[in-house]
Automatic annotation (TrEMBL):
GO terms for molecular function: 4 iron, 4 sulfur cluster binding; isomerase activity; metal ion binding. Residues 103-308 form the Radical SAM core domain. Its cofactor is pyridoxal 5'-phosphate. It catalyses: L-lysine = D-beta-lysine. Signal peptide: none annotated. This is L-lysine 2,3-aminomutase. It holds the Pfam family Fer4_12. Keywords: 4Fe-4S, Iron, Iron-sulfur, Isomerase, Metal-binding, Pyridoxal phosphate, S-adenosyl-L-methionine.
Length: 346
């Protein structure tokens, strides 16, 4: 039996941290010793603010440009209408098989396991998602589609954040998936242990490790400053339990759009046992244009990190295009001629 890593918190600590999340811009500004006067922050955002205290503790006081702060604080720029940015740029409505279930790619399906997150990232590609149409009870009826399709080998839990579910409900969902004989992999997309590392507990690890399914946790780190001692302990415990750990980042203007920051992130992830997997071009979602990084800049940055890191630390630069059979790998060869390119933002 693999010895477990002792966790320095109680199993329910994360729920206390979640309930204490900061939801008002002024409160966040006060905590960080910043002023709202003359700034570009929006105290009344249409997409609510939500930031847990453990994440705030990693932000620099007195620094409006802190890369963690920029990811979570509402800005007036979110209310600016920009051509080419739309509510559902990935056309997820057309990928829906049933309430709570989508299939974008062959052999795998995505379960909308929860409608909330522990943190509301301002660049969220599902900030306009109709979660009310995707609710389901504890019988998880959407899994009937999975049972009827033997080509499906992997179930991906997404949301919202699937780890916001109580352990009891998550355990029932995993057991239902486990009972489908042709499914052999369970993938969990989560940012919750990044912002509240206390979410990783012994009961959760038992759920993820004691299944016949091969479990993969895909975390969402965008900056090395998001990794502190508690985060390291949490992911070490997952790794010790035999869970595969990957990371997907989003390339964000003012957060991680330089090669030094991206290299630091890859190095920091590997130090805690997480393999950098994807670096996404940001999706063109309404209200997120101020985060956009142009494809030319993205390719240049990717080349730079390739020249500085071993191959296994270089995430794949990708973008998601509706209707394609897989995410598209972005390289210099994939760029259209400048005269025909519609992507002019840098």
């Amino acid at each position: 039996m693999i010895p477990s890593i002792p966790l320095p918190w109680q199993p329910k600590t994360w729920q206390t941290q979640l309930s204490g999340a900061v939801t008002h811009v002024k409160d966040l500004a006060d905590m960080l010793e910043l002023s709202l006067d003359g700034g570009d922050w929006d105290p009344n955002p249409a997409f609510p603010m939500r930031v847990p205290l453990p994440y705030i503790s990693r932000m620099r006081r007195g620094d409006r440009s802190d890369p963690l702060l920029r990811q979570v604080v509402p800005e007036l720029a979110e209310k600016v209408s920009v051509l080419g940015f739309e509510p559902d740029p990935l056309q997820e409505a057309s990928a829906t098989l049933a309430p709570g279930l989508m299939q974008k790619y062959r052999g795998r399906v995505l379960v909308i396991a929860a409608e909330n997150c522990a943190v509301n990232c301002r660049y969220c590609f599902r900030r306009n998602f109709p979660y009310a149409h995707h609710r389901h009870d504890s019988t998880f009826p959407m899994l009937n589609h999975v049972r009827d399709d033997p080509s499906i080998r992997e179930v991906i839990l997404s949301g919202g954040d699937p780890l916001i579910m109580p352990d009891e409900r998550l355990s029932i969902l995993v057991a239902n998936i486990e009972d489908i004989p042709h499914v052999n992999r369970l993938r969990i997309h989560t940012r919750l242990p990044v912002v509240i590392p206390q979410r990783i507990s012994d009961p959760l690890i038992k759920i993820l490790a004691n299944t016949r399914l091969t479990t993969v946790v895909v975390a969402h780190f965008n900056h090395a400053n998001e990794i502190d001692e508690n985060v390291s302990v949490a992911f070490a415990a997952l790794r010790q339990a035999g869970i595969t750990l990957l990371n997907q980042s989003v390339l964000l203007a003012g957060v991680n759009d330089n090669d030094v920051t991206l290299c630091d992130l890859s190095e920091a992830l590997f130090e805690i046992g997480i393999l950098p997997y994807y670096l996404h071009l940001p999706d063109r979602v309404t209200g997120t244009s101020h985060f956009h990084v142009g494809i030319d800049t993205a390719v240049r940055l990717h080349r730079a990190i390739q020249s500085k890191l071993p191959g296994y630390l270089v995430p794949k630069l990708v973008q998601e295009t509706p209707g394609r059979p897989a995410k598209e790998l972005i390289t210099s060869d994939s760029l259209p001629p400048a005269s025909t390119r519609i992507d002019t933002l840098v």
